[in-house]
Amino acid sequence: MISILVAGAIGLAVTLLGTPIAIKAFTVWGWGQRIREDGPHTHMEKMGTPTMGGIVILAGLLLAFLATRLTSGPITSAGLALVVAVVGFGLVGFLDDFMKVRNRRSLGLTKLQKFGGTAIVSVLFGLIVARSSDETGISTNLSFIRPTAISLGVLFLVWVFVVLTASSHAVNLTDGLDGLAAGSSALVFASYAFIAFWEFRHLCFGAEGIARQGCFDVNGPAMLDNAIMAAGMMGALAGFLWWNAAPARIFMGDTGALAIGGLLGALAITTNTQLLLVILGGLFVMETMSVILQVISFRGFGRRIFRMSPIHHHFELAGWPEFTVIVRFWIIAGLCVAVGLGLFYADFIRLGGLE
After folding, report:
1. How far is CA 205 from CA 74, 338, 346, 354, in A?
2. How far apart are CA 88 and CA 80, in angstroms?
3. Residue ranges per structural domain of the chain
4. What is the per-residue pLDDT across 113-165, written as a single tens digit (0 to 9) for each?
């Protein structure tokens, strides 16, 4: 428990104190945000705001994880897989951001290049998880709150790619207003810190070797690594949000958005809660679906459902102040997290937990 709290504190301290330094450095280097010309006119004043703040978020997370884990034992395969996922997705996002800054336009990597990069990282992550599944207890079956009887077999790597890529792009789509993605993601990471810690504390076989009811057939150190990573990212996002809240002094960029989303998907895999992420990250699902529906409606029927997608821009153009949209969407994110955690705990009780 202490290591989880320490990880959150280190992540918070690094981004809270380090982001102002990054703001000054990125301003000198000319790493300014490019704005979509078809976006809300109020966003044009954000042109030139330092971007790529995801670098600070990643620094806070990795320092939190390494400082905590290296002092308490070796890193498990689950922890290594999570590091590969978050760093790999962050690197893809960094390349995208850097191309935008260098070319001074709002377009970076092509869609094919992004999917290719995320596919490579997803496969590496999936291979580590699959090869260590017997050791860690991370199932290669389809899972909701627990592993189901549906075996994915050789399709596991494809499923990992779908989960990680979908979650990373969902967070990226949500990152359109000051602090929206950071605040919403912090809530979901808090839920995963709870889930991983709960699985760590309720293993099926403890020191006495007696199977418990409602337990989780997983490896304790692996779940502890999950909880530390989730808490470290939650703390890093909270510290970054201090400077990213409206009016933002720095943006996370694709460096941060892809890394955050990639880690969310990775945690869903390593905690055996793949489909539960759809509920916990309900806000991100809503944002993504608004884009999909807008594209289908416009290309198929020549009409737009929303004034602009993702849906947060629709409410902006409808006259809602930006801060109102942000806070109300944070509320939606919090409600989704509450429902997801409720389902997780209800399943634990249903199977006889805490009796």
Report:
1. 21, 29, 21, 15
2. 12
3. 2-275
4. 999 999 999 999 999 999 999 889 999 999 999 999 999 998 999 999 999 99
